Amino acid sequence: MAGRMTAPDPGTGPGADPGPGVGYRIAVDVGGTFTDLVLRRPDGTQLVHKTSSTPEDPTVGFVAGLHALAAAEGREVRDLLAGTDLLVHGTTITTNALLTGTGARTGLLTTEGLRDVILARQGSRDDQFASKAAPPPPLVPRHLIETVRERVDSTGTVVTPLYEQDVRRAAGRFRAAGVEAVAVSFLFSYLAPDHERRAAEILEAELPGVFVTASCRLVPEVRLFERTTTTALNAYVGPILRGYTERLARRLADLGYRRPVLVLQSNGGVVSLPRAAERAVETLLSGPAGGPAAVAPVLAALGLPQAMAMDMGGTSFEVSLSRRGRTETTSQGVLGGHSICLPILDIATIGAGGGSVAWATAGGMLRVGPRSAGARPGPASYGRGGTEPTVTDADLLLGYLDEAAFSDGIRLSRAAAASAVGALAERLGIGLTEAAAGIHRTVNAAMADRLRLSTVRRGLDPRRFALVAAGGAGPSHAVEMARELGVPLVVVPGAASVLCARGMLHADLVRYYVHSFAGRDPHPPATVLEQALNGLVQQAEADLREQGATGAVSYTRFADVRYVGQVHEISVAFADGTRPDAAAVADLLARFHLEHEERYGYAQPELAVEFVNVRLLARAPAAPPSPSPPRRVSGAAVPIARRQAWFEGGYREVDVYDLETLPAHRRVEGPALFAHPTTTLVVPPGFVAELADDGSALVHPATEALDAVLDRLRRGADPRPAVPAGAVPAGAVAIGAAP
Question: How is domain 290-507+680-717 classified at the CATH fold level?
Answer without folding.
Answer: Nucleotidyltransferase; domain 5 (3.30.420)
